Amino acid sequence: MQVTPRQHMDTVMQVALHGQAMAATRHELLIRDSWHRCVHEHRLDPTRMQEAVILPQARLREHKDQMEALLQIARHGLESLYSKVSGLGYVVLLTDARGITVDFLGDLVAEPSLRKAGLYLGADWSEQHAGTCGVGTCISTGQALTVHLDDHFDATHIPLTCTSAPVYDSAGSLSAVLDISQLSSSQPKESQHLALQLVTMHAHDIENAAFLYRHRRDWVLRLSSAPQFLEVQPEYLLALDASGRVVGHNRRAQLALQSSNKAPLLGQRFEDVFDLPFARIGSYVMNQPSDQRALMLSGVRRLLFLSATPPPPAAVVARAAVASKLPAALAALSAGDPALDRQIERVALLVNSPISLLVTGETGSGKEYFAKAVHASGARKQRPFVAVNCAAIPEALIESELFGHLAGSFSGASARGKRGLIQEADGGTLFLDEIGDMPLPLQARLLRVLSEHEVLPVGALKPVPVNIRVIAATHAPLEAMVHARRFRDDLYYRLNGAHFTLPPLRQRADLGATIDRMLGEHSLTAEARTRLMTYAWPGNLRELKNVLNYAASMSGDRIIDLQDLPELSQDADKPASSTHPSTQPIPTQAGAAALLQALRNAHWNVSEVARQMGLSRMTLYRRMKRAGIVAPNRE
After folding, report:
1. Residue 219: φ, ψ to 5°
2. Most CB atoms within 10 A, among 43, 174, 293, 587?
């Protein structure tokens, strides 16, 4: 039976103010200790019900920037965990060591309820603010735990069930917390036992992945008590420097291998931990079966099995340092704009990552250039880059264009069949532009391609394996489309492995340098340059390129003057308003009426209205269809 907020407040007061011994409560000691901390250390009032604190975007960005490397590593673990629990009503959260939620996977349709409950990006779940809760109490105790219903301190949270596990760095400090939570649960706390095991397992996987990345240039020792699992799932990880001293460990190794006198594991010599000279470490480098690579722990006489990976040769490290500089294709995208430079530096770390990328920005801001630069900077650059404009392909043809078809599989199909664009991109990069315009039925098929790495052509019974890296782009508000059930949330999360937002040209600090780059051998008079620099460029890079090409043709061999420029709208002499299509909500009934009026004003010239709205004609046709608008000449 669920307790009322008043009953809960009375119980918390009894435990926290009068001592645990006086309270006849079913709550375990760990929870009661947390309640005591909340009152006596954090000075929280158990009778006050507080709303969730959601940090503004600027402050959230600061927290995310401080752990960006771990966020990129952890993302696959979050997606894997969410795939196992999403159908049960859970959301997945990752917080930093201060309890701020820096990543989130959940049903965006339920966003208002999730945000109100604090199960959302930017939420502060520290015990100092939120009281006893999964994340905050995990941070305070360093333990994996479930805080179920009225285990929570604040009565606001008693409908929630939250299960959290800590993620430690290789120095033994808590770096993050992985959490799965539900808005409500009718089951007893014991029902969360499997959830606790899943969260702990995935937190351990994230921790190990971060360890291996951090110590990729050190000796890495994998240890297990069972030789059969030594290579696939080691229990303990240690990192050694060239002299054989411990410079890193995972949490399990710290707890199991730290000496009995509690001396820190970091800094100890290999011989202090194992009954073996460091000079013999080479005999454990995968040159004999796992069951023949046993060694004893020093002091406790415990048998473990070891697999050692040496650091890369100095030449490999040197090449890696050179490769860490920005690839030329990416460096060429910016002429010195700080916001764009930041996006380029981030994506440079992911050019060879298998995760999908989502690129957003206004129409003409260079999303396809960005995607091509990523492709040209990675190991797939010798393989195809296939660009698909989802808004330009007629809806009736998009399925066969993307997935291909067998001969005679439908009326009008090619007699010899056709390889789809997904297969054409095999081994390379598939760029899906205007992904928001992909019809819902095909979104499910695309999701299967991304998750199963195989494609089923129209009319085929057997899928074809494909190896592609997907980069999707849109100027549409995908999250709003998810809320309106016009875009699948599972596909959104799959595409959004890493999100990059390109700044509009009017906001870029390198506008002048970009103009000079595009001009090439041509030059501008002062008046012409002033006109270009004070124009807001609603069409962004695409419009700038067209204007400069026009001006170069008009000027011939002369310096480009003001009279050589095409007529530029006076309305664009100031920064564009916030009603740009990339920030507009999904059209409502009022939006449909506005679209109808725009078409009437343009005498049903669809191309003109599409240009005014910054859309492709196919996108506008689809919006007309959704709004039930039919041109008079088609009635």
Report:
1. -65, 130
2. 293
